[in-house]
Amino acid sequence: MIRIRLRRTGKKGYPLYRVVVANSPDRRDGRFIETLGSYDPHQDPPRVTINADRAREWLSKGAQPSEAAEKILVRAGVLERKPPVVKKKAARPAASTDSAE
């Protein structure tokens, strides 16, 4: 499966990330197919640079973004934000007023 995910670069204690397209079994910092952009979490606000056209093309080909990459693609305007999943609590059965005597 092809994934869009983050590849860590930078130095110890100061990580920077590249947004890459890679095969899912490959290592995090291993082989990749294409670099789509970069992410610097140390800037205020965090700096994101993405080649939106290439990202949309890979998504149309079936590439699945990781959770972190999906948030970055939403911030860059490539993807639309998914509505949050709200789980409804199951209704408890009403306590019976007739008590067995």
From TrEMBL:
<dbReference type="InterPro" id="IPR000307">
    <property type="entry name" value="Ribosomal_bS16"/>
</dbReference>
<keyword id="KW-0687">Ribonucleoprotein</keyword>
<dbReference type="Pfam" id="PF00886">
    <property type="entry name" value="Ribosomal_S16"/>
</dbReference>
<dbReference type="GO" id="GO:0003735">
    <property type="term" value="F:structural constituent of ribosome"/>
</dbReference>
<dbReference type="InterPro" id="IPR023803">
    <property type="entry name" value="Ribosomal_bS16_dom_sf"/>
</dbReference>
<dbReference type="GO" id="GO:0005737">
    <property type="term" value="C:cytoplasm"/>
</dbReference>
<protein>
    <recommendedName>
        <fullName>Small ribosomal subunit protein bS16</fullName>
    </recommendedName>
</protein>
<dbReference type="GO" id="GO:0006412">
    <property type="term" value="P:translation"/>
</dbReference>
<comment type="similarity">
    <text>Belongs to the bacterial ribosomal protein bS16 family.</text>
</comment>
<dbReference type="GO" id="GO:0015935">
    <property type="term" value="C:small ribosomal subunit"/>
</dbReference>
<keyword id="KW-0689">Ribosomal protein</keyword>
